[in-house]
């Protein structure tokens, strides 16, 4: 499995002497997408070490993580249970229909109950109810996920100044920061509002992983486009142009916003002349089928 580096060419940055590469984590695995594969890798090893036969995790109805865990269970020989936020809707959307097709048992809970997803008591009850499974938190983020994501940077064979990554729970960027051990500049682009909270989360994830504190990173909070699942026409338009120019698909929740933000920052002169940038394509393209269905738009 390989995630090649692809250089993007455009006078917009090349006229400033800026070079831009994309690390194509989306190509790591056909179904266990991008960062979700990195986050699962050591969790799967740990589940096996604990001789667990079932993986149980949490997510929304369009979650990339749910799709990835379902696929990983099939490929690596675990049963999987997905605790899905909200009510069941038939027919299943493309994400859940994929998850079910590779064997995931779907269990729906109310939005109120879902808020307890990190409570110890609730997790103990779930473990009893579902046969003592290996529990993976929402989005797959824990210390083993951070460890897996440190390997994203170990796997970049060129020299560069900045690395850019979309953020949800912050697990991926925590691994990137820890893997760089204080080197380079790391820019995170949150998909949600509320960057201050996320900053604290990331700091804690790194601390729990290796006890270190780093200052070479920041969150760019201007490009969430109204929040997680809000899709603005200008973002879709940008994604279409990007696909045409670079022949690289994006999705509107994470990578679309990050590239929009990154290119906007280049345009506004944020990066010094001669900067070398690496952007992480974290994958998530499975979600596009759901967008097409829900919004009736081409993404
Ligand atoms: C889950 C996901 C992210 C966010 O990763 P976190 O580790 O939760 O910050 C970014 N991009 C894509 C495509 C994702 O699916």
From TrEMBL:
Keywords of the record: Pyridoxal phosphate
Q: Which InterPro entries does its entry note?
A: ACCD_DCysDesulf, TrpB-like_PALP, TrpB-like_PALP_sf
The record places domain Tryptophan synthase beta chain-like PALP at 4-283
The protein's required cofactors: pyridoxal 5'-phosphate
Where does the record place a coiled coil? none
SUPFAM superfamilies with a match to the protein in the record: Tryptophan synthase beta subunit-like PLP-dependent enzymes (SSF53686)
Q: Which family does it belong to?
A: Belongs to the ACC deaminase/D-cysteine desulfhydrase family.
Q: What is this protein called?
A: 1-aminocyclopropane-1-carboxylate deaminase/D-cysteine desulfhydrase
Species of origin reads: Pontibacter aquaedesilientis
